[in-house]
Automatic annotation (TrEMBL):
Its EC number is 3.1.-.-. Keywords: Endoplasmic reticulum, Hydrolase, Membrane, Mitochondrion, Protein transport, Transport. This is GPI inositol-deacylase. It comes from Viridothelium virens. InterPro entries: AB_hydrolase_fold, PGAP1-ab_dom-like, SERAC1. Belongs to the GPI inositol-deacylase family.
Length: 450
């Protein structure tokens, strides 16, 4: 059987909440030529908008780009609007750049989210594509895998224009400021401001994450309570190949050096190895970590150098080079403050997983589940935390020691026998760590996954 062809993914914004996949597919088909309609087999995924605008966002996956969206092929950083008759005249916005925030899947219940998980890609990256596996299936693990494995968290990606051949004049601080401005829009309610937040950063995205924590510490709670609250909300950070002390940029400089007026030169200078800007940021970051959970994934393979081919197209097809050394990727904190994970991957593939059996994904999931359990414990006294932990337990299949639902329920009740009057977690707190629910002090296992 031939492999499935790798699909192109478009984002469609502005869909009514009542719109179904079937209605959208019918609307899109009306925009196609007769020849296109014959082979049009779209894959559509609907998710809530994270911007409180009472709308839905759609992920449209197709093997061949529709003619009416040809402008997005010519200029991938542009947007395209189409007026449709979807429940009356409605303008839909199409794009491929995924700038801003995009929620990746819907929650599996009507209960409040346990936590927000936000992933930020690197320099010259793509908010969605940089996290996709390299196989023809093109699995996007933050969406395809975490929808089941982390179903009660709101997982989002953040996109920004960092294309090296664009004419942007951003500095690293500019990108951080833009990120914080957008963050205010999706974490605006009192519940969202208090909600725990896990940040994931790949390469340059990790530098934005570090600067975000530094900036959050500086905000005045009386003047800007939303951003000031970030400092308490950020409970964990996952760095993937982040150049805390800089990286090798010779090939990047060669790319932008073709145009001596390219304003990206100064930005690339900020992230070169030994950059004073990064040295200062690293010192500031270490001063504000204050017990947060840090996991650092470090690349163990060399990466292909950027090289221009005969068609004048730049790609990583050159000689193998060490883009980021282990020394530069590490924070050099004690092991109890910084978990260090050596990953058999290069600078790009370290965040691209073709299957859920990838050792890097399994490690990332283990820590994300720990963070989710930590977020449940941190919820306010007004939240029924016992119910939240019970739901986590219920998701796991019963072990040999607890084969009946009554037995499992009784064991959970026993473990919660020391709760306080504010309904906080019991002294024998239940944690979902890795693939197992663990009790302290030891007790009969409630559930485990094999």
């Amino acid at each position: 059987m031939p492999n499935a062809k790798r699909t192109l993914v478009y984002r469609i914004r502005g869909l009514p909440l009542s719109c179904t996949k079937e209605q959208l597919a019918t609307t899109l088909k009306a925009l196609l030529s007769e020849q296109e309609k014959v082979t049009f087999r779209p894959k559509i995924k609907l998710v809530p908008s994270c911007y409180h605008d009472s709308s839905q966002t759609a992920f449209l996956s197709v093997e061949t780009p529709p003619i009416f969206l040809s402008q997005l092929t010519t200029d991938p950083l542009s947007d395209w609007q189409e007026e449709t008759n979807l429940e009356g005249p409605i303008d839909l916005n199409f794009d491929r750049h995924f700038h801003g925030f995009t929620q990746l899947y819907s929650p599996d219940s009507d209960e409040p989210y346990n936590a927000d998980v936000i992933a930020i890609t690197g320099l010259d990256g793509h908010a969605f594509g940089s996290w996709r596996g390299k196989s023809d299936l093109g699995c996007m693990w933050l969406q395809d895998f975490l929808e089941r494995d982390l179903s009660r968290c709101r997982t989002l990606i953040y996109g920004y224009n960092s294309k090296l051949q664009s004419r942007g004049i951003h500095t690293m601080l500019d990108y951080c400021s833009e990120f914080l401005e957008e963050l205010k829009k999706i974490r605006s309610t009192s519940e969202e401001v208090r909600r725990s937040l896990v940040l994931i950063g790949h390469s340059f995205g990790g530098l934005i994450v570090a600067q975000t924590l530094i900036k959050a510490k500086q905000y005045d709670r009386d003047i800007n309570p939303t951003l000031a609250g970030l400092y308490d909300s950020i409970i964990a950070i996952m760095f993937f190949a982040t150049p805390h002390r800089g990286l090798l940029v010779d090939d990047i400089q060669a790319l932008i050096g073709e145009d001596p007026t390219n304003p990206r030169t100064s930005l690339v200078g900020e992230i070169r190895f030994g950059s004073q800007r990064l040295i200062d940021q690293l010192n500031d970051f270490k001063n504000v970590i204050r017990g947060r959970r840090i996991v650092n994934f470090i690349e163990m393979q060399q990466t292909r150098r950027l090289q221009k081919d005969a068609s004048a197209f730049w790609s990583r097809s050159g000689d193998l080079i060490t883009v980021l050394s282990s020394d530069s990727a590490l924070l050099h904190l004690p092991d109890h403050d910084e978990i260090k994970v050596r990953a058999e991957a290069d600078h790009s593939s370290i965040v691209k997983f073709d299957t859920k059996f990838s050792p890097i994904y399994q490690s990332a999931l283990k820590y994300l589940l720990e963070y989710e359990a930590e977020a449940v414990r941190r919820k306010s006294p007004h939240t029924n935390i016992r119910k939240e932990v019970s739901n986590i337990v219920a998701e796991c299949p019963p072990s040999q020691e607890a084969t009946s639902s009554k037995t499992r329920e009784q064991q959970f009740k026993n473990s919660c026998s020391h709760t306080n009057t504010q309904n906080s977690l019991p002294e024998t707190a239940v944690e979902r760590i890795g693939m197992t629910v663990v009790h302290d002090p030891p007790a009969a296992s409630i559930c485990s996954r094999t």
